[in-house]
Amino acid sequence: MKFITFVHTTNAAEAGRPPPALMQAIIELGMEAGAGLVETGGMSDTATVKVRNKQIVTDGPFAEAKELIGGYAIYDLPTEAEIVSWTQRFADLHRHHWPEWEGEITIQQLHGFGMPG
Description:
By secondary structure, the chain is an alpha+beta fold. The protein has helices spanning 12-15, 20-33, 80-97, and strands spanning 2-9, 37-42, 47-51, 55-59, 68-76, 103-110. It is 31% helix and 35% strand.
Protein backbone atom coordinates (compact mmCIF):
# COMPACT_ATOMS: atom_id res chain seq x y z
CA MET A 1 0.00 0.00 0.00
CA LYS A 2 1.26 3.48 -0.80
CA PHE A 3 0.95 6.36 1.63
CA ILE A 4 1.86 10.03 1.53
CA THR A 5 2.64 12.07 4.61
CA PHE A 6 2.50 15.87 4.81
CA VAL A 7 4.39 17.84 7.46
CA HIS A 8 2.26 20.79 8.61
CA THR A 9 4.17 23.44 10.57
CA THR A 10 1.78 25.54 12.65
CA ASN A 11 4.34 27.99 14.05
CA ALA A 12 6.65 28.59 11.06
CA ALA A 13 7.39 32.21 11.98
CA GLU A 14 8.45 31.29 15.53
CA ALA A 15 10.24 28.01 14.78
CA GLY A 16 12.61 29.37 12.13
CA ARG A 17 14.54 27.06 9.85
CA PRO A 18 15.08 23.39 10.65
CA PRO A 19 18.45 22.67 12.28
CA PRO A 20 21.05 20.67 10.30
CA ALA A 21 20.98 17.91 12.94
CA LEU A 22 17.29 17.32 12.21
CA MET A 23 17.88 17.13 8.48
CA GLN A 24 20.68 14.59 9.00
CA ALA A 25 18.47 12.51 11.31
CA ILE A 26 15.69 12.54 8.68
CA ILE A 27 18.14 11.30 6.02
CA GLU A 28 19.27 8.49 8.34
CA LEU A 29 15.67 7.49 9.09
CA GLY A 30 14.92 7.46 5.36
CA MET A 31 17.89 5.18 4.73
CA GLU A 32 16.65 2.88 7.49
CA ALA A 33 13.22 2.76 5.86
CA GLY A 34 14.94 1.13 2.89
CA ALA A 35 12.61 0.11 0.12
CA GLY A 36 9.60 1.37 2.09
CA LEU A 37 10.52 5.02 1.47
CA VAL A 38 9.77 5.83 -2.17
CA GLU A 39 10.28 9.60 -2.28
CA THR A 40 10.67 12.57 0.04
CA GLY A 41 11.14 16.28 -0.39
CA GLY A 42 10.37 19.80 0.66
CA MET A 43 7.58 21.99 -0.60
CA SER A 44 6.99 25.68 -1.10
CA ASP A 45 3.85 27.66 -1.82
CA THR A 46 3.10 28.40 -5.46
CA ALA A 47 -0.59 28.88 -6.17
CA THR A 48 -4.07 27.61 -5.44
CA VAL A 49 -6.73 27.12 -8.13
CA LYS A 50 -10.27 27.30 -6.69
CA VAL A 51 -13.47 26.48 -8.54
CA ARG A 52 -16.62 28.37 -7.54
CA ASN A 53 -18.67 28.74 -10.72
CA LYS A 54 -15.38 29.98 -12.24
CA GLN A 55 -11.70 29.38 -11.63
CA ILE A 56 -9.88 31.67 -9.20
CA VAL A 57 -6.07 31.53 -8.92
CA THR A 58 -4.40 32.89 -5.78
CA ASP A 59 -0.83 32.90 -4.50
CA GLY A 60 -0.05 30.04 -2.13
CA PRO A 61 -2.50 27.83 -0.29
CA PHE A 62 -2.36 29.55 3.11
CA ALA A 63 -3.82 32.80 4.39
CA GLU A 64 -1.39 33.04 7.29
CA ALA A 65 2.40 32.82 6.99
CA LYS A 66 2.65 30.94 10.29
CA GLU A 67 1.06 27.85 8.70
CA LEU A 68 3.13 25.89 6.21
CA ILE A 69 3.29 22.46 4.59
CA GLY A 70 7.03 22.05 4.60
CA GLY A 71 7.52 18.60 3.18
CA TYR A 72 6.18 15.24 2.16
CA ALA A 73 7.21 11.61 1.99
CA ILE A 74 5.79 8.71 0.00
CA TYR A 75 6.07 5.22 1.45
CA ASP A 76 5.21 1.79 0.07
CA LEU A 77 4.48 -0.34 3.11
CA PRO A 78 2.35 -3.43 3.71
CA THR A 79 0.13 -2.06 6.50
CA GLU A 80 -1.36 1.10 7.97
CA ALA A 81 0.28 0.24 11.28
CA GLU A 82 3.73 0.49 9.67
CA ILE A 83 3.13 3.97 8.21
CA VAL A 84 1.84 5.17 11.58
CA SER A 85 4.97 3.77 13.25
CA TRP A 86 7.32 5.47 10.73
CA THR A 87 5.45 8.74 11.10
CA GLN A 88 5.71 8.60 14.89
CA ARG A 89 9.47 8.07 14.59
CA PHE A 90 9.70 11.02 12.18
CA ALA A 91 7.75 13.20 14.62
CA ASP A 92 10.05 12.15 17.47
CA LEU A 93 13.04 13.42 15.45
CA HIS A 94 11.39 16.84 15.38
CA ARG A 95 10.75 16.78 19.14
CA HIS A 96 14.36 15.80 19.84
CA HIS A 97 16.25 17.99 17.32
CA TRP A 98 13.88 20.97 16.95
CA PRO A 99 11.94 21.49 20.20
CA GLU A 100 10.66 24.89 19.01
CA TRP A 101 8.74 23.24 16.16
CA GLU A 102 5.01 22.71 16.46
CA GLY A 103 2.86 20.99 13.91
CA GLU A 104 1.31 17.79 12.76
CA ILE A 105 1.94 15.13 10.18
CA THR A 106 -0.99 13.81 8.21
CA ILE A 107 -1.06 10.41 6.54
CA GLN A 108 -3.13 9.61 3.48
CA GLN A 109 -3.29 6.37 1.55
CA LEU A 110 -2.69 6.75 -2.18
CA HIS A 111 -4.94 4.97 -4.68
CA GLY A 112 -3.89 4.63 -8.31
CA PHE A 113 -6.35 5.00 -11.16
CA GLY A 114 -4.55 2.59 -13.51
CA MET A 115 -3.44 5.40 -15.83
CA PRO A 116 -0.33 4.83 -17.92
CA GLY A 117 2.70 6.50 -16.42
